[in-house]
Amino acid sequence: MSNVPQVQVGIMHEPNVDFILHGTYKVNGEEVTGSQSAVLVDGKVSWNGKVCDEFLFEPTNMETDSFELVGVTIGVNFHWERKENQSFRGALRLIVEHDAICPVNILSVEEYLLSVISSEMSATASLELLKAHAVISRSWLLAQMDKSKKLAAGAEKYCACTQTEDELVKWYDREDHFNFDVCADDHCQRYQGITRSSTQTVRDAIKATWGEVLMYDGELCDARFSKSCGGVYEEFENCWEPKHYDYLVARLDGADEMNFPDLTVEENAREWILNAPEAYCNTNDKQILSQVLNNYDQETTDFYRWKVEYSQEELSKLILDRSGVDYGTILDLEPVARGTSGRLYRMKIVGDKKTQIIGKELEIRRTLSPSHLYSSAFVVEKQDVDANGVPQKFILHGAGWGHGVGLCQIGAAVMGEKGYNYKEILLHYFINASIDKLY
Length: 439
Prior knowledge:
The protein is an alpha+beta fold.
């Protein structure tokens, strides 16, 4: 097992961190166990009367020892946000980041995957779906770790935002993590340690795909996934940095993969979104959905096609609160550019005080919701327009849940139920990729 890479996962950021060591841990040669507390003091970590830049707690028994973090926030800024206690295997590193204490979990990639698969989906999902997700999560993680090394070695500073007087384009990826490899929330991959009960099926999926990754042209695939593509896949460059990947391109999420309209054309996108065409992810089968959606995700309904309504007052205040920009009274939300799934990646906010184009998709979703819109694939219906041309009501009719790039989790669950094996599922979403054993 020594050839399995190690991953460092940042769990939370708090001024005070309470944690419980279940088993015996070693820190600076000292053996400790039980309830512990660390606080931020003058930019350093204070624990047990000692103040240091960081502390490392290493388990004496990797198989049985675990640590529990108290009050971890999950679903940060999303509609399901809540706090819970979480338990983890592996080592615990306490560092200071963003003027807070950040607990970092250090463990093997394969141990990490046991949790991710049970956190991202239900651990009761079908074996083929779990195998597919194991390969995707492993590929994505190792690709991000590889990208981080290249960014650190390069002279150019990575920038995920461009702003002019008339346009703000911003994307949210994981390049802002410098003190660990990935975070534990939806910003990277949901990781909740051993809190989510794993099953024998999850362990079987990890074992069956041990070390397997998606490759394309000799490189690890940046294997993205989301809950529901809404019927057609989105392309990478419309959500993140302007880089094209030949394996992340538009296809119908169905058997007839090439049979879909050009959703970058506004009239096609409007018709597509306002209807509910047949696709793998167009399902209301609760048994299938329960494989993909954990209990808090099942609070979300109507994600293949959805609707959000705002009054003029609600929308104007919301955009001001979320963007910090005073557009005044909102007159229109105009589509400027759509991606291959119909998702907006450039949208014009027209107000009586200011007009500006914003993007990319997550910035749009973030600006138009107290948490996040399910997706940026939406069309706007304006109602009750007064004599001055000011709409008193905006209705957003939308499609899909998430960015829509790569594997569609609900579509993949349907494919699993239809009898497709994990390799067929993967190659449906990652075009002309190969599945190789890395270790």
